[in-house]
Design goal:
mainly beta; SH3 type barrels; 2 domains; six-stranded mixed β-sheet; three-stranded antiparallel β-sheet; 3% helix; elongated
């Protein structure tokens, strides 16, 4: 399995198989390989059953995560925040944070128009608070929108 956490041991124990938390798996990490972790899933006894879990995303209870340090945040906490520019003009809301391989992108949805991606860089993300993200939209980014 791929573990996207600074502390892989957070994946030990009861994990949710959806964001809603209605189904769970009990997992025990065994050992790390070059890029993955081998894990034992309670109730899975053969390769065929394990193959059925391929692609399953796993979630932990947010209360188990370590508290973010000052000037740090969890990506999930960005979802739903309002985006404003330097003049305090409302631009839209963050509906997702994507990474297609190069870097993180904020998916911002203005009211009444299609969403757009904004690179998550020091040049574009000026400030993050509990309720808003102040952004700088690079010239030309929305010309075709």
């Amino acid at each position: 399995m791929h573990v996207f956490a600074d502390d892989p041991q957070l994946a030990n124990g009861i994990l949710f198989t959806s964001e809603s938390g209605d189904k769970t798996l009990s997992l025990k990490l065994k050992n790390a390989t070059a890029k993955h972790w081998l894990a034992e899933v309670e109730g899975i006894s053969d390769r065929n059953d394990a193959e059925k879990l391929r692609g399953t995303e796993l979630y932990i209870n947010k209360d188990l995560l370590p508290e973010a340090n000052k000037d740090e945040f969890y990506i999930a906490d960005l979802i739903g925040l309002s985006c404003i520019d330097n003049a305090q003009k409302h631009i839209g809301k963050i509906i997702a944070v994507e990474n297609f391989g190069a870097s993180d992108l904020l998916d911002i949805k203005p009211e009444g128009s299609e969403s757009f991606y904004l690179p998550f860089t020091d040049d574009t993300i000026l400030e993050i608070t509990d309720t808003t993200v102040t952004i700088e939209i690079p010239e030309g980014l929305l010309d075709d929108a």
